[in-house]
């Protein structure tokens, strides 16, 4: 009886210890401060899931400006990833520098078992992406790509309606993303510098906003690659974006459907919206919260249902909560989830083909 009691007590203590250990906050290192989206972590309210333990940024003036604005101590700013990792031993790293450096982050962190989340797109090129994929799989780390549109409840609702057959078989998707242009909307000098550098960003609007549509289509099509990719780019603001494109149209063809992606730095009003057309109706994800469903009636008539959607449930309401949940094993990403490596490898293949098509003036065929 005594032995049974002792065994039961040990099991309870081990369970409590395990639960406590799982709930320890994920120690997050931030690599780079030049990306405008870094405010998402610097402004994040203190929570028990993630704690920022270190920052890597060689531009001390930039670090000091953001320290003054957001209140983090300059003592937590390091000059290199190696220095930061040795000092604070992060569980994960979030990349908020230029896109070219994403590969170097994975090269440094993966062998040490440190998980990585980068801002979209995954990489500047398919070549970089393939190297990152090999490292992530070899060292068994999570490698996530954060897209703002992954949080949108309208996109999730549109996906659900489509796959329930509400509008019939898929025929066409139109995805529009962008704004007036980095310089016109007043991004920081550091952010503008890499966004308009073809090496550091992989291109202009075609990469910066074309990735959203590639990512969404890969999710919608559950990993099926397009048969072909055709892209045309223009430079409508040479005075602001002298080295890169600022407007693009990308056409993806599938066996029974087509997608048109319209990434641009020339939209008069900022937008991230999607239209999905089926045989029986259409879905309009107008923004993060507003969605319209139209079911065809006759030639041009339709029955319309309007949805006003609230925020998604945690941890899908913001990227850092999701990162922590994935690392802890509490959340298993569905195959081809917008954050997943499987999705973003295909997204990079689409972007790579789009860039090649725009430069050669030819359609690029993809192998499924």
Automatic annotation (TrEMBL):
One of its GO terms (molecular function) is nucleotide binding. InterPro entries: Gfo/Idh/MocA-like_OxRdtase_N (IPR000683), Gfo/Idh/MocA_Oxidoreductases (IPR051450), GFO_IDH_MocA-like_dom (IPR055170), NAD(P)-bd_dom_sf (IPR036291). Residues 157-283 form the GFO/IDH/MocA-like oxidoreductase domain. Residues 1-23 form the signal peptide. Residues 27-144 form the Gfo/Idh/MocA-like oxidoreductase N-terminal domain. Gene3D superfamilies: Dihydrodipicolinate Reductase, domain 2 (3.30.360.10), NAD(P)-binding Rossmann-like Domain (3.40.50.720). It holds the Pfam family GFO_IDH_MocA. Keywords: Signal. PANTHER family: BILIVERDIN REDUCTASE A. This is Predicted dehydrogenase. It comes from Arenibacter palladensis.
